[in-house]
Amino acid sequence: MPGHEGRTYVVTGADSGIGEHTARTLEEQGGRVLRCGLGAEMDVRANLGTESGRDLLMKEIAARAPGGLDGLALVAGLTEASADAVHVNYFGTLSVLAGLRPLLRLKEQPRVVIVSSAASLSAGDDDVITACLRGDEEAAGAAAERAVAAGRGGMLYRSSKIALNRWVRQSATAEEWAGTGVVLNVVAPGVVETDTARDELLAAPDEVRMLSAALPQPLGFPGPVQAVADAISWMISAENSFMAGQIVFIDGGADAALRSDKPYSDGVRYGPAAMSRMLFWALRARVASWRRD
């Protein structure tokens, strides 16, 4: 079990579901948790879909943790078929991450986990995803509104999560993150038994059958929330010292059932510049070896 004694964390979306379980788990293991959400019992109440809400959260956290943060669990998200899902899930998450990065860098072993979704295994809206990855919130919002008008609003949740996955894969190994010791990874849960899932996904038997066919979970449908919280607890701990930029599917086997070995069937293909550098250093190493002999 990871130890969190003496470490300070921020958990967004802590008023329900995965966020609530994660906050409780971190506290039970000795961590200090600043809970962020919309409920009255939260340490910080802020709507991450707005600039003012994001600014408020960052200001409040800076005041409550002036010595820095050991980790962030960025769980907050909306499943609704509206542009708000894109504003909260993608831009709200990354705004908080960027704004709290200076507090993370005050600590020796900072860790970040972003919660995505196994829904990201399906295709999303290309216009929304592209605008997200450009960092253009206005264009992403406009593309989301077009998707809603065209009857494709159901794609927005997974589109926002696909964009998060891709951003982390592109960014986690950069100098400002792994290069400065800030470990950044993603957890992508399958369907787990939260209040939101029960109300929105699991209420009708036919919808459950459809969803379980679209997202098969051999280990159980729906899955346990605590399994996701436990994974986040380890990934946000100091013990997670050598993993960066990974998308870890805590999904009852859905990723493997749907994609088998497809993501791993082709090896890495290096470009000409990388090949030249590797050949240069290989030759240098060979010459040095000859000289030693």
UniProtKB/TrEMBL annotation:
Highest rank taxon of the organism: Bacteria
Database matches in Gene3D superfamilies: NAD(P)-binding Rossmann-like Domain (3.40.50.720)
Spans traversing the lipid bilayer: none
Coiled coil: none
Key words, A-Z: Oxidoreductase
Record-linked Pfam families: adh_short, adh_short_C2
InterPro entries assigned: NAD(P)-bd_dom_sf, SDR_fam
A GO molecular-function annotation: oxidoreductase activity
Family named by the database record: Belongs to the short-chain dehydrogenases/reductases (SDR) family.
Protein name: Short-chain dehydrogenase
Organism: Brachybacterium alimentarium
Biological classification of the source: Bacteria, Bacillati, Actinomycetota, Actinomycetes, Micrococcales
